[in-house]
Write a structure and sequence with these properties.
Helix 2 (54-67) crosses helix 3. This protein has 3 helices and no strands. By secondary structure, it is mainly alpha-helical.
Length: 87
């Protein structure tokens, strides 16, 4: 009789330990021990990348840090405001 190729999954105390384990092991060898995962994915939202002059980006980053927001949030806010005023 053929022996099962799957190995026993070691006990772990955290998700981080499990991630570290699978950094060096083949998940396929433990597939039959994995719980089924169900989740929704929303692919409607898109992100667009644009080029920004280095000096402008540097200044923008300084302003964002002073306001304790990300550069992305600051740019998004400024662009929305500019579009609202232009409309």
């Amino acid at each position: 009789m053929a022996r099962s190729k799957s190995k026993h999954l070691p006990p772990t105390q955290s998700v981080r330990e499990l991630v570290d384990f699978f950094d060096t092991h083949d998940m396929g060898e433990y597939w039959d021990q994995m719980a089924e995962a169900n989740f929704d994915v929303d692919l409607k939202k898109k992100t667009h990348l644009i080029a920004i002059d280095e000096a402008v980006f540097g200044k923008l980053t300084e302003i964002a840090k002073s306001r304790r927001v990300s550069s992305k949030m600051l740019i998004d806010s400024w662009l929305k405001d500019k579009i609202r005023r232009a409309g």
